[in-house]
Write a structure and sequence with these properties.
Aspartate Aminotransferase, domain 1, globular, 3-stranded antiparallel β-sheet, PyrdxlP-dep_Trfase_major, Aspartate Aminotransferase, domain 2, 14 helices, 15% strand, 7-stranded mixed β-sheet, 45% helix, binds 4'-deoxy-4'-aminopyridoxal-5'-phosphate, 398 residues
Length: 398
């Protein structure tokens, strides 16, 4: 038996071996010429992944929450109005962060498994003047995917900054920061970017940088203040040594490797792989009679799936059985439904074989728990869905 389990939670994910090897390399100086080159390359590659040739990338030690905090700390001042568009747990977290910086927040919360109505957003932006709005591309608590483009366009129409929490989407879902006119897209390293936890990453638009430069008050967080970080990002990009806080050298070496893997695959192909695997996986689970939190395929994430436990199945017993079988899945996150659903991450270097392992282990575990499913039912639906796609592709390409 392999000495390790298959990690299929929505982050941290399974990392590529080359990325993990980078973590074990001898740590170099943060001002060594080869590290300066690595950092500079990461900044350039982030612009490609975010599709933001004009944006200002920022790489700091921290988690996705720090990236959320950094956007709020730099762009929002006391008494600014902020509209929080929430599709779950992480939407609400953004309200807490904005409140901490003294913003006057209004939160529009979608019912569980749904998105917020666009007309309601437009009405609100028309009626009140907002400095910024926040939205979560994929809320990891519900598996709901929001289409950021129309919301970003509304934000532009009403002269309001848009901040996208892309922690569970960047490098897995389609993103076009400049075309869509999004002011900040942020993430953490441990998800589809494919690097162990510990990096807060964001790209800010030119407009966001102008708004920050025109602040009337100083930034309320010393660590997050772009006054401290912008010169560092510029220096690394110009291949000059600099220092504010010691960068997590090995993580950044790993980031360069992962970004190059992403670049080699190409964002279009990568997004399609995520979409096709997610769709086939949902078909497999549906054949096993699982219901999903998102109300439709159109708003289902391609980076993770959130599904209810079947009636009569003890969720913790099911997850324990899977873990014993070598497959680690995540429980529910929404406090009100925590015990009724679970989540499977499928992002980054995920393959069809990983998902086959999950489905077959799920089938066996359900049967062992006395739940009536036929062995192979979920797998068959998964295979059929994938084959349908590959037949279509070969017709197109051949
Ligand atoms: N936003 C979303 C959508 C997330 O999924 C997460 C992490 N699960 C976060 C924010 C917070 O990121 P971190 O745990 O890295 O602080």
């Amino acid at each position: 038996m392999k000495g390790r389990k298959l990690l299929m939670i929505p982050g941290p994910i399974e990392f590529e071996p080359e990325v993990l090897h980078a973590m074990g390399r001898a740590t170099t100086s943060h001002v060594a010429p080869d590290f300066i080159e690595t950092f500079g390359t990461c900044i350039e590659l982030m612009r490609e992944v975010w599709r933001s040739p004009l944006g200002q990338p920022c790489i700091v030690a921290g988690t996705g929450t720090l990236a959320m905090d950094m956007a709020a700390a730099n762009l929002v001042e006391k008494d600014d109005r902020v509209l929080v568009i929430s599709t779950g747990y992480f939407g609400k977290r953004y309200k807490d962060i904005m409140d901490r910086y003294g913003a006057k927040t209004t939160i529009f919360e979608a019912p569980i498994g749904e998105t917020v109505d666009l007309d309601a957003i437009e009405n609100e932006l028309k009626t009140n003047t907002y400095k910024a709005l926040t939205l979560t591309h994929v809320d990891t608590s519900t598996g709901v995917r929001v289409d950021p483009e129309p919301i970003a366009k509304l934000a532009q129409k009403y002269n309001c900054l848009s901040i996208l929490d892309g922690v569970c989407s960047v490098a897995g879902e389609e993103i076009n920061q400049d075309d869509w006119g999004i002011d900040v897209i942020l993430t953490g390293s441990q998800k589809a970017i494919g690097v162990p936890p510990g990096l807060a990453l964001l790209v800010a638009s030119e407009k966001a940088m102008q708004v920050w430069e025109n602040r009337k008050t100083s930034v309320g967080s010393y660590y997050s203040d772009w006054n401290n970080w912008l010169p560092i990002m510029k220096a690394y990009e110009e291949r000059r040594p600099s220092y504010f806080g010691t960068p997590p050298v090995n993580l950044i070496v790993a980031l360069e490797i992962s970004l190059k893997i992403i670049q080699k695959e190409g964002m279009e192909t990568r997004v399609r792989r995520h979409r096709e695997l997610a769709r086939a996986f949902r078909a497999g689970l549906a054949a096993l009679k699982f219901d999903f939190l998102p109300k439709s395929n159109e708003i289902s994430a391609n980076t993770l799936t959130a599904a209810y436990y079947p009636e009569g199945v003890d969720g913790s017993a099911l997850l324990a059985k899977l873990s014993k079988d070598g497959v680690i899945l995540a429980g529910g996150l929404l406090p009100e439904l925590k015990k009724s659903y679970f989540r499977i991450g499928h992002m980054g270097s995920v393959s069809s074989n990983d998902l086959i392992a999950v489905l077959s282990s799920l089938e066996r575990s359900l049967i062992e728990l006395g739940h009536p499913v036929k062995p192979g039912e979920g797998l068959q639906a998964f295979q059929k869905d994938l084959l349908k796609l590959s037949v279509t592709h070969s017709k197109i390409t051949g």
